[in-house]
Inverse folding.
């Protein structure tokens, strides 16, 4: 991105001044280097989002922002229904409520190393991953609706997990005001056999070791210390979410002109929050959030069973579960008042600061855990929400590394088998049904997650707490 | 002008582009590009046929609708397609997709397509050929 287009507010904050049809400015949080490397499309998309009706304060881009669909990936925008605010299917994305959860294990590195190959094989065998994989659960119509209404709470009631897990999931594991009746039969059909599946692309299940702690006090609250083993799961709402995204994108694109909304880009398709299409989408989107929460909960149960068989001393307690493709109603301070806003986070993580009532009581003093996935060869990070993040970007932070190159380019550059062998030589076991998928997801195809996390920390969006590195990676 | 397809770059995902002497041919080629983003086209035998029909208010939304219909059929039937015949009447599409059941060992699929987006969405006549393109979220 051309720095000439931006006004520098600080080392990590850049403003695109309000111009043209923009209703508010756009703000990018990143270091100078990250901004220079950012696609110009992020500029265009952040500007386009700023033109949408009812947007509050600014259109924000996180340090990992890249070219998305309508909204940049790494985009945050809040809308006020009292001022004609909109909800956008593109602003949530196709993989509704895609997210990350992190589980403690109570184990140390030596425990894993002793059984690493068996553990990797068993996880790969028992956790369905990759294109066309199906789960062991097949939902009938009534159970499908119960799942879409109940989320992770539904899963726990059906025996997929522990009641105490729910306190460690956003919305206590159940997004309220979901409307399963707004979800099409096609979307439900796509999901029928996909519960408890990991998916493909950048989704993964990893067994990781805590290799660094940066904030001792918060790490203590989160229960993380160097050498600890954790499990991270990254996936979303599977076929159901994809289908809802597809259907409502079309409905909103067609309806926008009826609502008098001028779209600078069709992908920005949106509808007033207080409109038939807007309300229908919100109900369906919340059902998809529940689908994602239920899915990660079932995957957690599958992982626990594997550990129970191989490492029976392990106790897999949930640290936290975050979603990074959502639109949620939240209270925020804006223009001197507390307002109920519809906050879109597309490839961005909610990051409530210390003391926020929605952070689980045992973690509240430290702030909400923010889980940042890296590539399979590098590492991931645990951060914590800050008080400052509220004023910066409605309590939001980054979500991952972001790609440095296209899948096509990665495929030309790497061979899947070689990537697997190189990682094995470094003590990281990777299992996947697709060597091409591995090549496309090669560690070198991603940006440096450390630079993204450092920028988020420096900007004050979230506080860097710990780094984790993979020992086992199951890729879809 | 020969009918052909190609992929184009979109940060995290993949752009599919079809060229043809007619709009319908460009749609067929874009569908081939979609399958090629998932698996090697040559590994997919067109032994079974699925009928697809869809409508949209304009050409571009129709292309997205066509690719999304294929994504839906691939997902729910657990199939891959390597042969397409598209007939267009205005913005009504009737097509036949030919393929076979997904065989992970043989097809080695790299990614599943989540949906065809409206990003870089374009259906247009360029000189004496048609181009049909969009970005697919994978």
């Amino acid at each position: 991105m051309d720095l000439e287009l931006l006004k520098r507010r600080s080392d990590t904050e850049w403003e695109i001044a309000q111009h043209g049809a923009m209703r508010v400015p756009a703000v990018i949080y990143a270091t100078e280097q990250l901004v220079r490397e950012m696609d110009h499309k992020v500029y265009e998309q952040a500007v386009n989002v700023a033109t949408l009706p009812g947007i509050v304060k600014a259109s924000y881009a996180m340090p990992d922002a890249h070219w998305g669909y309508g909204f940049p990936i790494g985009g945050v925008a809040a809308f006020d229904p009292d001022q004609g605010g909109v909800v956008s299917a593109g602003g949530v994305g196709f993989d509704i409520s895609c997210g990350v959860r992190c589980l403690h294990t109570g184990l140390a590195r030596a425990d894993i190393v002793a059984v690493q190959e068996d553990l990797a094989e068993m996880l790969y065998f028992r956790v369905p991953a990759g294109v066309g994989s199906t789960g062991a659960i097949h939902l009938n119509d009534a159970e499908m609706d119960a799942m879409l209404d109940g989320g992770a709470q539904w899963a726990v009631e059906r025996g997929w997990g522990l009641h105490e897990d729910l306190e460690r999931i956003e919305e206590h594991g159940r997004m309220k005001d979901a409307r399963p009746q707004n979800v099409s039969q096609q979307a439900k059909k796509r999901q029928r056999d996909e519960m408890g599946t990991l998916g493909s692309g950048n989704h993964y299940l990893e067994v990781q070791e805590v290799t660094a702690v940066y904030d001792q006090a918060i790490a203590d609250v989160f229960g993380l210390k160097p050498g600890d083993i954790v499990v991270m799961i990254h996936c979303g709402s599977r076929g159901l979410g994809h289908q809802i995204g597809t259907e409502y994108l079309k409905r909103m694109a067609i309806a926008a002109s009826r609502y008098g909304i001028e779209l600078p880009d069709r992908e920005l398709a949106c509808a007033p929050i207080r409109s038939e299409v807007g309300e229908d989408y919100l109900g369906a989107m919340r059902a998809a959030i529940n689908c994602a929460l239920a899915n990660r909960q079932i995957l957690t149960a599958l992982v626990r069973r594997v550990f129970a068989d191989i490492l029976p001393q392990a106790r897999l307690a949930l640290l936290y579960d975050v979603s990074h493709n959502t639109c949620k109603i939240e209270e925020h301070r804006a223009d001197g008042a507390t307002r109920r806003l519809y906050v879109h986070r597309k490839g961005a993580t909610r990051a409530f600061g210390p003391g926020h009532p929605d952070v689980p009581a045992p973690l509240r003093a430290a702030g909400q855990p923010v889980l940042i996935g890296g590539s399979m060869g590098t590492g991931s990070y645990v951060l914590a929400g800050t008080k400052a993040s509220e004023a910066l970007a409605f309590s939001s932070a980054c979500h991952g590394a972001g790609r440095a190159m296209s899948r096509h380019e990665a495929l030309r550059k790497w061979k899947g088998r070689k990537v697997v062998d190189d990682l094995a030589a470094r003590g990281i076991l990777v299992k996947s049904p697709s060597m091409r998928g591995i090549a496309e997801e090669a560690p070198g195809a991603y940006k440096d997650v450390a630079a993204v996390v450092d920028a988020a920390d420096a900007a004050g969006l979230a506080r860097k707490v710990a780094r984790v590195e993979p020992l086992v990676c199951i890729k879809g | 002008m020969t009918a052909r397809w190609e992929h184009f770059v979109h940060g995290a995902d993949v752009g599919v582009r079809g060229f043809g002497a007619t709009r319908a041919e460009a749609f067929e080629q874009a569908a081939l590009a979609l399958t090629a983003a998932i698996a090697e086209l040559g590994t997919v035998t067109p032994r079974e046929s699925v009928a697809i029909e869809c409508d949209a208010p304009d050409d571009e939304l129709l292309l997205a609708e066509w690719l999304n219909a294929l994504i839906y059929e691939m997902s729910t039937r657990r199939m891959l397609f390597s042969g397409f015949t598209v007939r267009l009447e205005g913005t009504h599409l009737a097509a036949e997709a030919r393929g076979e059941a997904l065989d992970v060992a043989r097809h080695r699929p790299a990614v599943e397509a989540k949906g065809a987006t409206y990003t870089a969405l374009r259906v247009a006549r360029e000189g004496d050929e048609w181009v049909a393109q969009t970005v697919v979220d994978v």
Remarks:
- Strands of chain B lie at 4-10, 13-20, 48-55, 79-89, 92-101, 115-116, 122-126, 129-137.
- The mean pLDDT of chain B is 95.
- The CA atoms of residues 32 and 124 of chain B lie 18 Å apart.
- The radius of gyration of chain B is 14 Å.
